[in-house]
Amino acid sequence: MRPHRGAIVLVYGVLGLIICPLLSVAAWLMGSADLKEMQAHKMDASGRQMTNSGRILGLIGTVIMLAVLVYFVGKLFISPWD
Predict the structure, then answer these.
(1) Is 1 among the domain residues?
(2) Which is the most buried residue in 16, 27, 41, 43, by most CB within 10 A?
(3) Given this model, what pLDDT does residue 75 score?
(4) Helix, strand, coil tally for the chain in percent (to 5)
């Protein structure tokens, strides 16, 4: 069985909200993949809580990043001189 990466996923999720939104995407993808492996008993499930928390933070950070991106791109193309 592979060791869990719960701490890494959680740190990426937190840093994605605070510093770099791309880490949010990484936390979301890594967390989802790790939870699937834990479900299939290929990865140590003792880090399930940390992994799930990091995945959720990654999802929130990704949604915020996309909302900000859509806002600024929309602002650029809809009313560029406002």
Answers:
(1) no
(2) 27
(3) 86
(4) 80, 0, 15
Question: What's the pTM value of the predicted model, to 2 decimals?
Answer: 0.87
Query: Is 12 contained in some domain?
Result: yes
For residue range 37-57, list pLDDT tens digits in order. 999 999 999 999 999 999 999
**Residue 10 structural domain:** 6-78
Stretches in the chain below the pLDDT threshold 50: none
Cα separation, 52 vs 45, whole angstroms:
11
**Residue pair 6/54 in contact by the 8 Å Cβ criterion:** yes
Q: Report the residue count for the chain.
A: 82
Q: What is the 3-state secondary structure (H, E, C) of 38-75?
A: HHCCCECHHHHHHHHHHHHHHHHHHHHHHHHHHHHHHH
Determine the pLDDT at residue 1. Answer: 86
